[in-house]
Fold Rhodanese-like domain-containing protein.
Amino acid sequence: MQHFDPLAAHAYLQARPEAVLVDCRTEIEFLYVGHPVGAEHVAWQEVPDWEIDPAFSNKVKQLVGGDLTRPVLLICRSGQRSVNAGEALEATGFASVFNVTEGFEGPLDDQFHRGAMGGWRFHGLPWQQS
């Protein structure tokens, strides 16, 4: 798995239109916190139990039309869940998996808030909220 910071991930997506950005956060995070414009939502885990979706890899496989060579970029809140999701994709045969470091919201600051030190939104990249 390769790792891109949000700016490099955005540039890669612009240069490679066949690449897919998968937001693997929960549905609530995706809808209410916001998400990158054009991101597809496939949750790695979901509330209330936070159990890993055993069908995650199959759902992403459907998303890429079965083409396991198609580049898949994964983003979560801070770049941690997306690593686990990426490892699962690689274990099922995906050849080009990229983790977006910093995620959508970035790391915690000294006040335990996100969004002030990094992340997709922090860098002013295109995003939307439902």
The radius of gyration is 14 Å. The mean pLDDT is 95.
